[in-house]
Amino acid sequence: MNGSFIVSKFGGTSMGTLEAMERSALICLERESNVVVVSATSGTTDQLIRIAKHASLGENQNYEKEVFALKERHQAMMNEFQNNRDANQGLQNYFTELDLLIQNIFLLKELTPKAHDHILSLGERMSSLMFREILQQKAPQKKVIFLDARTVIKTDSHFGKAAPDINEIALQCATLGSENIYVTQGFIGSDSEGNTTILGRGGSDYSAALFAEGLKASVLEIWTDVAGIATTDPRLCAKARIIPELSYAEASEMAQYGAKILHPATIAPAVRQSIPVFVGSSFDQHKPGTWIRNQVQDRPAVRAITKRSHQSLLTITNPDMLNAYGFMGTVFDIFGEHRISVDCVTTSEIAIAVTVDHTTLENKDLMTHLNQIGSIQVETDFALISLIGNDLFSRESLAKAIFTSVESTSVRMMSLGASPYNFNFLIKENVAKDCIERLHQTFIEGQL
Ligand code: ADP
Ligand code: ASP
Ligand code: MG
């Protein structure tokens, strides 16, 4: 491996239009990025999911309409480039690949996880093809190489959310040279048999971090549609403000508990190689943004508030467990076996209540398995709100301030005490925005 690498990732909105792509290309050149990881153009992954679903249900009119719209959108962007012959041919090949996959799914009325990942990979492959073209046109003196991320991001075969093979990725990264600029895809990889896999929704940040780790990059840049990581989602609270500097632990905690700006797994690879991470807006590149590092100057007790939507509460009850042992162990073994992560837990002697993502309820095997050890009550439409900080317990009158802020909200469950870095509670989704505004006022604006 030669030289030092700067890995820059651009999200869906940064790829959304020709202007956005051009702006992103100029950022790459100004920052001297040499590995550029891109997402699908905004809305494309959602559209591919709908297309695959319609095809598997035999709804040909619906999928044809969506396929037409997807192709038209990409073709219109491609037509805006000059000298696009090779890239245009590449795009037509992707369209053919999509048609073939969808026709097969439609004929079989079956959508396997393997086929699903392959279809989803087309979003990133199309955007990166176009972005390489733009970057090359902006820097004719440089060698801009289209890199198929599936040759580098090697994973297991857990389709839908594959786990990366760090050692294999490092080996593949060693073949890249820093004198070139590589444009590659976020979100996608391949297993040992060459099947296409994906890292899970929002996984392009994670891909970029894996490239950065494998290359021992000097910096990882995440370019998105907001000017850095804010004290809470700016879409939920107008008073949210950008945090100039965050520790790895704080950023990781925020991502785990719902700050969509970073995929939850992004920070771990950066930590393993001590790579500083920058988050900034590709629409406003000169704003200071957020730096995520090991050590930071300012370590407030409460740093940020996050929201994780689409939460369901499962309560598993077994009266026979009164004065018996092992109930908790059995419940968590079952979640582990089905690879389901549980976020928030409360227990009594005969019942365990856990929060899970709502998609978990579709896992029929898990539900059947849980039903064998107790009765299950399901409640839906919750949001998990978290206060994230460095030492929440050092905040004077913490409990009082929390209860006052959420006074008029009906809180279904809360968890404080397991960690000094976060406090979680579960409320109905429709009151979440209001609640976040009040918490922000008390804990963030009140600190100024
Ligand atoms: P990209 O397509 O660039 O990956 P995402 O939509 O995945 O972008 O993430 C950016 C979005 O994350 C922002 O538009 C913002 O609404 C949301 N977000 C959630 N929490 C935060 C936060 N604490 N700070 C900044 N943005 C946040
Ligand atoms: N395109 C993928 C998604 O929408 C990955 C990403 O954007 O990070 O989930
Ligand atoms: Mg994202």
Describe the structure.
There is one protein chain. A hairpin with an 8-residue loop joins strand 9 and strand 10. The chain has 448 residues and is an alpha/beta fold. Helix 2 packs antiparallel against helix 5 and helix 4 runs antiparallel to helix 5. The chain is built from 13 helices and 16 strands. The longest helix has 26 residues. The mean pLDDT is 93. It has an eight-stranded mixed sheet with strand order 3-4-2-1-7-9-10-8, sandwiched between helices. Strands 12-13-11-14-16-15 form a six-stranded antiparallel sheet. The protein has a two-stranded antiparallel ribbon with strand order 5-6. The chain folds into two domains: 220 residues, Carbamate kinase (3-Layer(aba) Sandwich), CATH 3.40.1160.10; 144 residues, 2-Layer Sandwich (VC0802-like). Bound molecules: adenosine-5'-diphosphate (ADP), aspartic acid and magnesium ion (MG). Aspartic acid binds next to loops.
Outline of this structure?
With 448 residues, the protein is α/β, with parallel strands linked by helices.
